[in-house]
Every structure is written in structure tokens, then in C-alpha cells.
Task: structure prediction
Amino acid sequence: MNNSPEPLPRIARFERLGYGLFVHWGLYSQLEHGEWIQSHRKILPEEYRKMIGTFTAADFNATYLAKLARVSGFRYACLGTRHHEGFSLYDTRGLSDFDSLHSPAGRDFVWEFVQACRKEGIVPFLYHTLLDWQWNSAECSEESFDAYLDYLHASVEILCKHYGELGGFWFDGKWSRQADWKEDRLYAIIRRHQPEAIIINNTGLDARGITGHPELDSVTFEQGLPTAPDRSGWPKYLAGEMCETINSHWGFGKLDFNYKSIGEIIRHLCACRKTGSNYLLNIGPTASGGIPCYEDALLRKVGEWVAIHGDVLYLGRPVDVLCQGQDFVLYHSGIYYYFAHDLHRKGDTHVVVGSSQNGPRAIDHFPQTIAEVVWMDDGESGRFSQSADNTLLTLDCSGFDYGNDLVVRVAELRPSP
Result:
């Protein structure tokens, strides 16, 4: 008996977005050593604040960013509006002078971002820190912490009231202090102004997939592949989302050469969708706000792979069948989709290395009779067989023709009428 709850409409919509772009950018980008540089170098807040005088953002182009997100296959994007350094990329409307309106840039980047996203059909989400080094929020007195929460919640209310309808809010830093964060009040502010917004509060590296406050809409998997949850008995259906850096840092690192490959990103996107989770992939613009060339190119190339497979990556839902290795099946609009991993190229042995994993692959507990198999990348018909009771389906995964390598190849399994 399945006693799992049904997702609320906003959570179901969030799951259908599937693939999101995360953007970490702020004053820390000027130091070119990642987003935690103030803490790691123990820069005093009063010294750090001086960097506002060199924040010009000459190369930040929200229109370009939103167009890049669209052509790369993203359905939503999440901008860091304020990170742990305490600097805001929006007009704090008198709450603080430590924001982008008081910098040489003189711009409200959140406004630019949300407007550009809407024009490109990208759903805008906003990241906002809970931890704030300007306030010493992790270690300050209880009295100061209460004052800080007033400031924090007022800041979030500005974002709720002045930037139109938002896809959601993404919070981070609650793990920094064991305290009453007055989450009831914070989330009530959001629900009052943005009733359909998704609310996420990152549980960090050590608590992936852990549930929290009843108002939250998704669990998080930071820098780790998601697991499929058993939602039986849960009071509320929660989505899942994996957030991950494109290299080793959330913010720009000039000497960070440890970038993920196109193949890694494709495999991680598939691993997320296998469990029904979203994949939120981060980039870190430069000090001036430009997108590093490798990150730009990588996103576009992954987008070419995404485009081959249409809506199944967003709308397909996991099917409870047994597959070999990392393979899995999604279902959408009457068709099953088989995701085949670790295939090899076919060709002359002088140029092709390793093809032992090509060949028949079994899918057990299959629910329907299949009439036809078609590979999505080239329209080629696939060979298959099915047991008399239909529950064991065997698919011939013959590998890639020389000149092709999809990393993960997807076949449509079309049921009999």
C-alpha cells in the first residue's frame, strides 16, 4: 500500500523544471579566490567593506545570462542576491548602504536578472544567505542575533515585494548557528507576498536529503548525487534538488582548473532525473560580472545534448523497474524512456578502445508490452525481446557508431496500443 502524499501544485511545477542554473557572484569575486575568501583570510568586516569602492560590474549582462540559460537547456535560474559576506546585489531600500546601489556600479542586479529571465522564459529564483559575516551572526550575542534576524527578514521581504512573481527562495547558512532562526516568521513573510514560491533551506554537506521546517518544499543534496526518497508516511511531499559547482568553488577562482567535463555534467543530470530530483548547476562570474569562457562553452554543449531529448528530461517521472548498472527508465506521455550508460563506440579495433559493455541489457519488472524501440539521437530502431509475461524486457544496446558518443544514450520504448 502506497501512503505517500501527493505533491502540492507548486512542488509538482518545480519538479517539472528539472534543470537549473545557479549563479554565485559578489564582492568576493574581485579577490578571485572563491566565495569564502573573507573568512579564510580572516579579513575584518570594516576592511572588507572597502571593496565596494571597486565594484563596477562592467561586464555583467543579465540578458546574455538569461539567453545562455535558455539555449543551454535550463528551465530556471537562481541568483545569489546576498552571500555570507553581507553585500547585497539589490536595493536594500535604506536597510544598509552595503549594497550594489552604493557601489560604483549603481545598479540593482536582482531587478535586471528577474526581468531578463522572464523575457527568456526562465523561472527566476533568488538565493539569500542566512549567515552574515558583517553581523558576526554565527557568534554574536542573543540580543544582536535577534536584531540581525529582524534585518534579515526585512531584507527578504524587500525581495518578496519589489521583484514580481518569483519561482522560489533558496536559503543557506542555518547550519552556522544552533539557534531559533524564527523560521515561522521568515516563511510567513514569503507566503504572504509570494504564496506560490518554492522555499528551500540548504542543509549543507553533512545533512544531505534531511527534511526540516514544514513550510519547506524540497530537500537538498549539496555536492552529492541524490538518493530516491521513501516518502511513505511523510506529512508533506518534498521535492529533491542537487546543487553542484562546475569546478571546485561556488564563486570565481582564477587558479581553479578543476572543471567538470561535459560528460560528467550529462551523467549528473541523468542521475538527478533518475530519482526525480532537480539538478542546480553553478557558475561563478568574474570580478566584473563576465561569464568565464569555459563555463559558457560547457553549458552550451550540454544544452545540445539536452535538446536532443526534448521534454522527457523535465517531465519524465521515474519508473520502478530494475536495470543494470546506472541505467534507468522514465515515463512521459505514454512512452517509456531507457537511459543507457557506459556504451562504447563501434568501429575498427585500431581506433576503438573497449566495447565489452555493449550488448543486451535486461530490464526487470517492466509494466507493459513494448511494440517498438527507437533511439532518440538518430531515430534508429532498436532490437529487443520480452518475456511471455512481459515483465522481463531485454534491449540490445549496441553502442555508438564511430563519430558519435552521447555519454548517455536514450531510447524510446513505445508500448503496444
Observations:
- The first helix runs from residue 9 to 17.
